[in-house]
Sequence to fold (308 residues):
Amino acid sequence: MPVVDLTKPGEKKKLIAAAVLGLVAILFLWWTFIGFGSSNTRTATRPQPSPTPQRGGNRPADNTPRPNDPAAAAVIALSAFQEIDYQPSSYNAPEARRNIFAYYEPPVKVPTPKPEQPTPVPSPPPILVASVSPANAYARSGDFKLEVAGDKFTGATRIYIDGRELPTTFISPQQLSTTVPSSIIASPGARQIEVRTPDNQLYSNKVVLSVAAPPIPNYTYVGIISPITRVGDTALVQDKANKSIIGVQRGDLLSNRFRVTSISDKELVLMDATLKIQHKLAMTEGDKSLSSPLSRPTPRVDAEDDEP
Fold:
């Protein structure tokens, strides 16, 4: 083991430095574990043995802080802090100047536009009706045959006019036919035609059948002439266009269309030779201002009223 030679100046200084460092280390350890001063002095005490409880008595509570108890260490550490009572002084500022003419105006609420809903596109019907033939008819013209052209027709599909089912003949998936009774076209107007099944499981789009008013004769029945020979009565009719009066008998044709079918002293019956529509003209008094010799009705003369 080497021996320190104190006669050397360097060795002496090293020894003094080591002693000082040792003293500093001891003081640091003392301050850490024990501390300085009476308030924070930590005294190491030997643990006292717990008193033996007497017979029939309770064991007294031991409130002595133990050096290795974390809760006791926390209490000791918090005792160093003091509660601060902060009481700020009150400060009263003068009221700010206000403009008496200024007032609060709520903002104008702008209505939020509702998002536009897309227009739903209807699905196409399972049956297609392309056209009907004829597409036009005259009122009171009688029964006529109607043909419907389209696609996806079946034997169960029927032709409906204004919701009324008609007896339908299935020709092909593209053609159906029926007979339209005169009661459906008794008056002018539009008729809705569709093709569907009775249970409405299969249906088509609707097409229109136009029913127009039939042409009427432009004449006025003004008189009758009954000859003595009873060959045939002659009806006097006035043309509304030129105010002329003409005489016609049964079978004659007016305006190349209306045939005289009946003559009486009450009415004149005309038949439309094209549409087979009957028109009745009641007898009325003609225009007395006309200069025609037939401008006035001629009274009817019967043979039995003549005297010999």
Remarks:
- The first strand starts at residue 128 and ends at 133.
- DSSP finds two helices and 16 strands in the chain.
- The longest helix spans residues 9-33.
- The helical segments are 9-33, 70-78.
